[in-house]
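User: Please predict the structure of the protein below. I'd like the answer in structure-token form so I can feed it into my own downstream comparison script.

Assistant: Understood. Taking the following sequence of 74 residues as input:
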Amino acid sequence: MLLSASDQDAGKDGVTDDEVVTAAESLGEELAAAKESSSEFAFTTMVMQCNEAIGDETGIDYGSVCGADDDGCC
């Protein structure tokens, strides 16, 4: 149901599309701030851990979709 035509309806897991988008935007903002204040190693490690956690929850391998060397992802 993610990003479906009806943003107000909750999916089978009880989470609305708007809540998913809000959480993703928040994660993006936190990662951008962390990138500015962390060493490259620490930031890359954090992104890899996020990718793994997202993959565990969604079944999507974000590491293969968005590589750590791709500046356009974060």
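That's the full token string. The two ends are 24 Å apart (CA to CA).
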